[in-house]
């Protein structure tokens, strides 16, 4: 479960994730599937899904 820590936003080199009003927003068109957000999330709240 996401705890809104912001680690994924901080580490994403492509700015695919951002927080506004403590809510996570994800922009899939900016995501390149590198997985750094997955590895940096301390709550294991992010999963990569292949299309």
Q: What does this entry look like structurally?
A:
The protein has a single domain, classed as Alpha-Beta Plaits, CATH 3.30.70. 20% of the residues lie in helices and 16% in strands. The protein has two helices and two strands; from the N terminus they run H-E-E-H. A hairpin with a 2-residue loop joins strand 1 and strand 2 (23-26). The protein is globular and about 25 Å long. The mean pLDDT is 91.
> What is the string of helix and strand elements?
HEEH
Helix content: 10-25%
Q: Strand order, main sheet: write it out.
A: 1-2
Q: Could you tell me the radius of gyration in angstroms?
A: 10 Å
The name of the CATH architecture is 2-Layer Sandwich
Give the termini distance in whole angstroms.
Answer: 22 Å
Give the C-level CATH assignment: Alpha Beta
**Averaged pLDDT:** 91
Topology of this structure?
Blueprint: H1 7-11, E1 17-20, E2 23-26, H2 36-40
Give a brief description.
It is built from two helices and two strands, in the order H-E-E-H. The chain is of the alpha+beta class and 51 residues long.
